[in-house]
Amino acid sequence: LKKNKGFFALMIIVFMLSSLFTEQPAYGVTNSFIAASGGSQSMLALNSDGTVWGWGINQNGQIGDGSTDTRPYRVKVTGLADVKAIASGSTHSVALQKDGEVFTWGSNFSGELGNGTLKESYHPVQVTGLSDVKAVSAGSFFTVALKNDGTVWAWGNNSSGELGNGTTKSSITHGQIPSLADISSVSAQGT
Fold this sequence. Notes:
By secondary structure, the protein is mainly beta. Helices cover 9% and strands 36% of the residues. The chain contains one helix and twelve strands. The chain has one helix at 2-18, and strands spanning 33-38, 42-47, 52-56, 71-76, 83-88, 92-97, 102-106, 121-126, 133-138, 142-147, 152-156, 171-176. The chain has a four-stranded antiparallel beta sheet, with no helix packed on it. It is globular.
């Protein structure tokens, strides 16, 4: 037994440390994740029940749990239901609900939340005036949405013309990208 004492102590330490990096119990939650998206500092996961979960560094509130606390385990994003798609920018997050409404949270340095302000949000906020969306994507500091009619809408950082509107002026509200019609998918990356 004395020979194994060190082994058992090591196993207890490993068990305790591993609990820091595993999910904390969320009773009544089915772990049936269908999508994941990673930003530069955090991750999101979409559960089949339409809930969104996040973990990682949370300095801008991009996990969406109402705090800026780092989360080494999954926590539920507050205020969302019936989500069908997620996307992660560098430090902001996006969710698309089944009803076509878009929600964003986290950093808002260049208006990437699309809520008419430059104030970051630790909770999901609705992108007002934008509906009937079928897909979303997030660049580092901008966001893109594809509507069911095939038009593409964008907001946030535009220092390199990311918004496709012929300027390099960032936007805190969504705007349609001219000359894009009958588009079937969107993907954003970079600044």
